[in-house]
Design a protein that fits this description.
With about 250 residues, the protein is mainly alpha-helical. It is built from eight helices and no strands. Helix 6 runs antiparallel to helix 7.
């Protein structure tokens, strides 16, 4: 099921439940019931709970967005460092250059076609990706420079491979959801409490109040979906992509 279909259903269900409860509550209320008599303390508590929950939602959205941005940065750094290795080995002998470039393209192809799906499904990297990166490392470090020009390029190439390794580890670490279960419990419970407080304000069954109640509940559902979508940076609809690999290595993995 598409994430956007889930969002639509969740927002529709939230609106339907709130409107149904309001209508049933109004239907069961006696005719002489005064809906305007809401205690001041109730209004104050409702306002404070809404403000606190809004702050929590804002912090949660900022946190998962930052994690998603960091995940995309890891991909960009890894792809750029691999591109530097691919291009800088041009000064090496043809046999060594072609072997290293072949290893780089094999690694990129594996990441795009296999490891990305595995990472999205399980939050783990693949052992084959580790072995392919090790081949790149050995190809770069095992070559003994034959001239001063090659010697000058040797250390920068080793440094780029180290950057690839570091970015790969960071990519693997950021593949799993970032929000702990206890935080999700607080967000969901807070959402139910905040929406439930609509009924404490003794709203009537006027079109204006019903529309506002429905929109408010739909907004809460949308914000929770937004946090859920950003929570797993590589596996959901609003996810980091492998585009840096594809743009720097066109044709690989197709």
């Amino acid at each position: 099921m598409s994430e956007w279909l889930v969002l639509t259903l969740a927002m529709g269900a939230a609106c339907a439940v709130v409107l149904l409860v309001v209508v049933l509550r109004h239907w069961r209320t006696s005719a002489d019931y005064d809906a305007s008599e809401t205690p001041d303390v109730m209004e104050y508590m409702t306002m404070m709970i809404g403000v606190v929950y809004a702050i929590v939602l804002g912090l949660a959205i900022a946190g998962v967005w930052e994690a998603r941005s960091a995940a995309q940065d890891h991909v960009r750094v890894e792809a750029q460092a691999l591109h530097e290795v691919h291009e800088r080995v041009r000064i090496y002998p043809a046999e060594v250059r072609d072997r290293i470039r072949g290893d780089v393209r094999a690694y990129v192809g594996h990441v795009i076609t296999t490891e990305w799906d595995r990472m999205a499904e399980t939050g783990k990297l693949t052992p084959r990706g580790d072995r392919l990166l090790e081949r790149i490392r050995h190809g770069v470090t095992d070559h003994e420079p034959e001239s001063d020009f090659e010697a000058q390029a040797y250390q920068p190439l080793v440094d780029q491979v180290a950057i690839v390794d570091d970015a790969r580890v960071a990519r693997g670490d950021s593949a799993e959801p970032t929000m702990p279960g206890v935080v999700w419990f607080g967000l969901l419970t807070g959402g139910l409490v905040t929406v439930g407080l609509i009924f404490a304000l003794q709203i009537r069954r006027t079109a204006r109040e019903l529309i506002l109640a429905g929109l408010f509940s739909a907004l809460i559902a949308f914000l929770l979906f937004l946090i859920w979508g950003f929570d797993a940076p590589y596996s959901r609809g609003i996810a980091a992509t492998a585009e840096p690999f594809r743009s720097l290595f066109p044709g690989v993995g197709d």
